[in-house]
Amino acid sequence: MEGSNSNNRTSTEKYRINRAITAQQVRLIDHNGESAGVVGIRTALAKAEEVGLDLVEVSPNAVPPVCKIIDYGKLKYELQKKKAEAKKKQKVIEVKEVKFTPVIGEHDYQVKLNSILKFTKEGNKVKVTLKFRGRELSRQEIGVKLLNRLIDDVKDVAKNESKPQLEGRQMMMILTPLIQK
Length: 181
What we know:
Layout: H1 2-7, E1 16-17, E2 25-29, E3 35-40, H2 41-51, E4 54-59, E5 66-70, H3 72-89, E6 95-100, H4 106-121, E7 125-131, H5 140-153, E8 158-160, E9 165-167, E10 170-177
Parallel strand pairs: 2-5, 6-7
Antiparallel strand pairs: 1-4, 2-3, 4-5, 7-10, 8-10, 9-10
């Protein structure tokens, strides 16, 4: 039944402390980090009280569970710092979107191409959307030709993740950078 008890804990409550520990025998690690062997829960609680610290169950699945005598507030603070450090180091890849129409002017095309090149050099994916208006939908080959030209222009820095797909009045494709930063 001890395993089902650990499932009842919330995700924010990682460790059982002091009187919340249900095991009768625990493997104790004292406040200096040295092993004190297998002791009864009351003895372990008494030793923790004696030094003014908390008894924290660090490995509940071990037989018997491993408990440490440490300051619980300090442990929570250190875990929070590690989590923040890991979050700071991770790179989030965003998906940027650039919209085209089939009858785009050359200068407008170059401006949007430069945006796509900038986004991919930053390590972001780019969703290219080609929107057909009115009767342009009957001339889809113009849109396909434009997207193929775009793929050819960015082949040095990005690759096409999927071929252009028509969804309703829009044709879409996703470009991913060749080199991840």
